[in-house]
Amino acid sequence: MNCDADAPVNWRSIKQQFPRPNALYTHWLMAPGSLTRKLQSISDGTFFVRVLSEGWAYHSVLPTSGLTQAGSGKLLMWSRKVLLGGHGENWVAAHSLIPVTTLRGANRQLIHLGNKPLGGFLFKQRGLSRGDTQICQCDDYWGRRSLFFLDKRSLLVAEFFLPDLIGRMQTTLTNGNGHVQQN
Predict the structure, then answer these.
(1) What's the chain look like in SS3?
(2) pLDDT grade, residue 141 (50/70/90)?
(3) Which of 4-13, 19-28, 154-163 has the highest mean pLDDT?
(4) Neighbouring C-alpha atoms within 13 Å toward the C-beta of 29
(5) Phi/psi of residue 128, each to 5°?
(6) Which of the four pLDDT bands, split at 50, 70 and 90, describes residue 173?
(7) Which domains does the chain have, with CATH numbers?
């Protein structure tokens, strides 16, 4: 899978996306709040974060990403790629890009998360706000990305929903009431 937060794919609002994802994907793509909490709630205590890569990198910044800086088209950022999952399955591939200017004060701990979920930190912050969610289809995966602001400092988070998660949800729905519940 070669999909990143700053991938030059067609990131769009759900209203602009065609073809649109099915109802199950839409449920996950547009879910408000913490994806970490949502995944933990279905993992029966088996939730995990597996770090694939993390470190400093210069990233080309596309105007649609929301990460901008006067002058250069590249920003020094902390780049972190992880897999989130449960029950021994990989459910979400996530990529976060955090500009060096965001990593001040308490935000510096973002480069020391290790196998802790980013959402576990973000959604505890009083100064957190979230921009509009954009979605895309990259390879065979649907993903979403959001620009978050911690006290007006930005970071970009992309999450791609993997087949094991969708398969687990389809099985749950087949064995349950047959409807995706909206939270």
Answers:
(1) CCCCCCCCCCCECCCCCCCCCCHHHHHHHCCCCCHHHHHHHHCCCCCEEEEEEEEEEEEECCHHHCCCCCCCCEEEEEEEEEEEEECCEEEEEEEEEEEHHHCCHHHHHHHHCCCCCHHHHHCCCCCEEEEEEEEEEECCEEEEEEEEEECCEEEEEEEEECHHHHHHHHHHHHHCCCCCCCC
(2) confident
(3) 154-163
(4) 23
(5) -85, 135
(6) low
(7) 34-175 (3.40.1410.10)
CB proximity list for 22: less than 8 A, separation 6 or greater: none
pLDDT of residue 89: 97
List of residues 6+ apart from 173 with CB closer than 8 A: 24, 179, 180
For residue 67, what are its two tokens?
A: 């990460």
Amino acid occupying residue 53 = S
| Side chain identity at residue 8, one-letter code | P
- pTM of the full predicted structure? 0.86
> What's the N-to-C CA distance of the chain in angstroms?
29
pLDDT band at 178; cut points 50, 70, 90: very low
